[in-house]
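Handout for the seminar on molecular recognition.
Each group receives one record of this type.
Step one: identify the two inputs.
Step two: read the structure output and locate the region that could contact pyridoxal-5'-phosphate.
Step three: write two sentences on what you found, then compare them with the reference statements printed after the record.
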Amino acid sequence: MDIFESLESEVRCYCRNWDTVFERAAGSMIYGEDGREYVDFFSGAGALNYGHNHPALLRPLVEYLLSGAVVHSLDMKTAAKRRFLETFHELILKPRDLDYKVMFPGPTGTNCVEAALKLARKVTGRPHILGFTNAFHGMTLGSLAVTGNSMKRHGAGVPLSNASSIPYDGFLDGGAPDFQWLRLALDDRGSGLEKPAAIIVETVQGEGGLRAARAAWLRELSDICHQHGILLIVDDVQAGCGRTGTFFSFEESGIVPDIVCLSKSISGFGLPLALTLFKRELDVWKPGEHNGTFRGHNLAFVTGAAALEHFWQDRHFEARIAARADQLQAGLARIADAADGATVRGRGLLAGIHYTDANAAGKIAAEAFARGLLVETSGPEDEVLKTMPALTISAEDLGRGLAILAGAAESVTGTGRRTVLKTVA
Ligand SMILES: *Cc1c(COP(=O)(O)O)cnc(C)c1O
């Protein structure tokens, strides 16, 4: 038994599937202490959109540390924070015509969701929040209350209140017009639905099985929110920062959410940082009303600003993501074709394969690890194989990872339709 097993809590998770000690990483590759190398289709669950140790972020970080600049400063003014705010405004908000105020809550995804929920309740004076089936918003009580997964919810140990769940795009398999129940329930004073402060949504359900909302569905959701004075919160913690092809995942739909949550890749380097963005008129906080020790950390500001400057000056990076996304989706489609009933899910470089056999994805991920690829599963039964390569991955590394995945999938789902696979390939 090693120190991880003897000392670290049973709560540990990823290390059980990837049982090796990792030592070094560069770009889309990560290396074990034993010298084995792995293509990384996991990307720190979305915290490493620009790969591991990108030199354009590493260099300014090391220079900052060696310069004697301030590392920790609560929410005091620093040059690093000024540069981050200026860059975020110039390169992200202004070109997209988004007039958001920026709040730095604690540094994790669930921190920025909690801040969003708290603000929505404070602004509207209403306690109830609606979330969606299979949503994931984090592990603290407020975020958990709008999360679907029953195993994670049961971990709370107390009733999760002031929230309820409504069907996400695709949940009803087209069996009812979009939002039929929500429209009727909001208009009917006998429906029993308390008017919510906000509706919180992921445009692609990263943890809940990679269902992607259609742009028209998101627009209808946004319209309903406007009509009823309900705030719309987009949780872009995982799908944001370029993951689906544009900086914000909702850009394609044209909606402008009232509140946006960003974390995972906003520092660009895997350092903890989170933002809650909201329309200017919603900024009703009193000074210090939502406080915390690690709200916006200078090291994360340095790498976050460097990432925006390096990748988001113009549209080139989006074109590059689109090319890799096409390659990924084509590769996944070929792999899905070889298994009965398997379908490709997701959007951009947040994509995967849904298998009808709920055990297939887990077995394929385990086999892929044995062959040198980090890839995880998603969904309530872990029935979806989930790929999330770095946005910076080369065509060659992506091809290499897809080839490993195809081999692993074939060894698990069998060779029944091999001839089809061969001809399509
Ligand atoms: C990961 C994630 C969170 C929670 O982020 P943590 O940093 O783990 O607290 C919230 N929402 C979404 C969509 C996520 O993917």
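Reference statements: The chain is about 40% helix and 15% strand. The domain at 58-312 is CATH 3.40.640.10 (Aspartate Aminotransferase; domain 2).
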